[in-house]
Amino acid sequence: MDNVSQFSSVIGDIYDAALDSTLWPDALQKIAGFVGGPAAALYAKDTIRKTGIAFHVSGIEPSFTQSYFEKYVNLDPFTTARFFFPVGQVISTQDVMPHEEFFKTAFFKEWASPQGWVDFVSVALDKSSATYAECGIFWHERGGTVGDVAREKMAQLVPHVRRAVHIGNVIDLHKVEAAALADVLDGLASAVLMVDAEGRIVHANASGHGLLDSGQVLRRSDGKLLTPDANAHHALRRIFSAAADGDLKMGNEGIAVPLGADAGGRYVAHILPLTAGARKKAGIEYSATAAVFVRKAGADLPHPVDALTDAFKFTPAELRVLMMIVNIGGVPEVAPALGISETTVKTHLRRIFAKTETRRDI
Predict the structure, then answer these.
(1) Cα(82)–Cα(133) distance, integer angstroms
(2) In the prediction, which pLDDT does 360 show?
(3) pLDDT at residue 65, rounded to an integer
(4) What is the rounded CA–CA span in Å between residue 320 and residue 328?
(5) By the 8 A CB rule, do 17 and 40 touch?
(6) How confident is the model at residue 253 (pLDDT cuts 50, 70, 90)?
(7) Given pLDDT bands bounded at 50, 70 and 90, which one contains residue 272?
(8) Quick one: CATH architecture of 3-171?
(9) Which string of DSSP letters, residue by residue, matches 119-130?
(10) Predicted TM-score of the model (pTM)
């Protein structure tokens, strides 16, 4: 299979998984294969509670997945490094720390190395005030370290994975038969509308009709979907047209389209193409090329660690030390976990104290 055909097949599986979450492990296996690694995972981390959860995993033994969230999530350099990179940006180990430093950490020695993993490439799919969701590909020592080609391939998949995860969160069901998509959508609290390439509404659930009737966020004219927000209106027209041409045309469009409302408030739309994969049956049945999921946007609060980093200008190394002190203990515990000397830990702490104007003898 050539690269274009493989790419098309992978994103088709990604969008099918948006409707049927049981398909995610197979989709992740294809994602890993396309990018170049043997294993992949979709997961979330809660940095307030210092916990996390793996939603879907492919190629990792369950015992290692369990031990990661029970013990190693706080030792993983990626956990704190993620705060230095925006949602949607692909990063690998070399963006977090030099490989020679990574190989000295307790995380590598105790969790990654026993599995043969030597590198990792990931992207944050979403981030809130306390958690972030991520998709990551693990790299085996047989493949060396992550290179530019792998990063570029991961970047190509990012908008499609983000869109599918957003829509899957709206549906929040174990399994959906694509042929009965409209029946399922009718039972959702979120507003969902199915449209053709010209934006004509061919089906809407009860919440969708409610938004249309109010006219504050969505409207209809001559059967077409409209929005009071001119920018959103033009964006939706482009996306509906792209959806008619298949998954590959979607690109970065439609991941999250901001919708203004006449009475204030913030809404966001996610668009799922219905012209390929298992979704095609539903699209044909209802003469639709796309499904539009609309929900009220939450407060865009900064993550506490983001706020700390912005306020005090911590470096990645300083933030790693600070979070380790918070999560696992003092200097004697932190030094071996990070694979550095106690003197180095103390140096970072002095800089942290200076930046925060904190006084303490160490």
Answers:
(1) 10
(2) 58
(3) 94
(4) 12
(5) no
(6) low
(7) confident
(8) 2-Layer Sandwich (3.30)
(9) EEEEEEEEE-SS
(10) 0.66
- What percent of the residues of the chain are helix, what percent strand, and what percent coil, each to the nearest 5? 50, 20, 30
**Domain 178-296 -> CATH class:** alpha beta
**The dihedral sign for the CA sequence 29, 34, 38, 39:** negative
Over residues 167-182, the mean pLDDT reads: 50
Q: Which amino acid is at 32?
A: A
pLDDT band at residue 174 using 50, 70 and 90 as cut-offs: very low
Tokens 């706080």, residue located: 74
Highest mean pLDDT among 99-103, 227-231, 299-303: 99-103
Q: In 3-state terms, what secondary structure has residue 245?
A: coil
- Please give the Cα distance from 5 to 26 (Å, whole number): 17
Distances (CA, A) of 48 to 52, 167, 231, 276, 333: 10, 26, 36, 40, 21
Q: In this structure, are residues 254 and 163 in contact, taking their beta carbons and an 8 Å threshold?
A: yes
Helices (H), the chain: 3-19, 24-35, 62-70, 77-81, 93-96, 99-102, 106-107, 148-171, 181-186, 206-214, 230-244, 280-285, 304-312, 316-328, 331-338, 342-355
Tokens of 182: 């409209």
DSSP state, residue 85: S
Distances (CA, A) of 236 to 157, 190, 192, 284, 295: 21, 18, 14, 20, 15
- Kindly list the domain boundaries of the chain, sorted by start residue: 3-171, 178-296, 313-355
Across the chain, mean pLDDT equals: 81
Amino acid identity, residue 318?
E
Segment 91-97 mean pLDDT: 93
Pair of tokens at residue 40 = 């992949």
For residue 257, give the amino acid letter. Answer: V
* Intrachain domains 3-171 and 178-296 with the same fold: yes
Q: Distance between CA atoms of 258 and 231, rounded to whole angstroms?
A: 9
Better-predicted residue by pLDDT, 179 or 126: 126
